[in-house]
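Example complex used in Figure S2.
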Amino acid sequence: MRLVEALGVVLPHLRDELVIHANGFITRESYALVDRRLNFYMLGSMGLASSIGLGLALAQPRRRVLVFDGDGNLLMNLGSLAMTAALQPVNFLHLCFDNGVYASTGNQRTISTQVRLEALAAAAGYVAAARVTTPEDLERTFCDWLPLSGPRFLLVRIEPDGEERPLPRVAHAPDVMAAQFRAACAREP
Amino acid sequence: MTAAEFVARLRAAQFDFFTGVPCSLIKGVIAELEAQRDYYPETREDAALGLAAGAYLGGKQPVVIMQNSGFGVSVNALSSLHLLYRLPCLLLITWRGFPGEADAPEHIIMGRACVSLMDDVGLAHRQPDADSIEADLHWASAVIREQGAPAALLLRKGVVK
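Predicted assembly (350 residues):
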């Protein structure tokens, strides 16, 4: 399963969820598939997708917040697993698309093949944490978990793409996108 | 100004989300916020900034507390998130290693560099003293509301009790 297939499984099930996208190919692949107005696309600040999602979940307790994280992003900010577990936001679903590499910089390996990130999330105190490797398991677990109380952590093991995969960059001006996302949050779900 | 008075002024300025990493110079403010059960102790200063960015997107007006050592950790978050996307927050940054005052060796270099680093990344900042803290807080609120930019108050020992 590649990132585009994994997102293709998840995205059709989204309705009014707020989704924070980690920078790099997670942002670019999702943006290329479906540019939702309830998507926030990180461009820089690598590592902070989960922290941004947590802050959003605390500020918007009546909305479901998803984080589309990556292994490289999460390894840069493991403290956020502890922070999320400590605060126990029930409206928080954390997906980590784990391809085992820093894809945007040329597929250099991360250490995610040696460290089970879902075990770290479970040990920190997420109410549920699991790993899926097939589109069928991804769809089943995602659909089961989407309505349930969190915080939950789903590691989606994917294959790295080739380095030549052409993907558009997000065309929205960052400040305009942020203002529109904030305004969308302010409207009733 | 006492910590309780300062927190009351933060609330009057409609700040309503508080996180950070502590410093002894601002322990009174953190204790006051904790007593009000309205403070999220973060693990790192840049993670606190991420938390604040998410809270702002969700409709809050965040405050992030840190020591200037943590400002070093925060430069990428500020430059590629808050300043890039115009996600404002109030930064209360304590000033260890203030030039000319004796302090622990680990604070000397950042104490000397932090002001020019803030200038270099374009982070609006002021350095209040006890007489100007109220006016400087108003200034920071105006930067946040009118420019949509983060603003920092660089706090020396004793400015907030």
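The domain at 3-155 of chain B is CATH 3.40.50.970 (Rossmann fold). The first strand of chain B starts at residue 17 and ends at 20.
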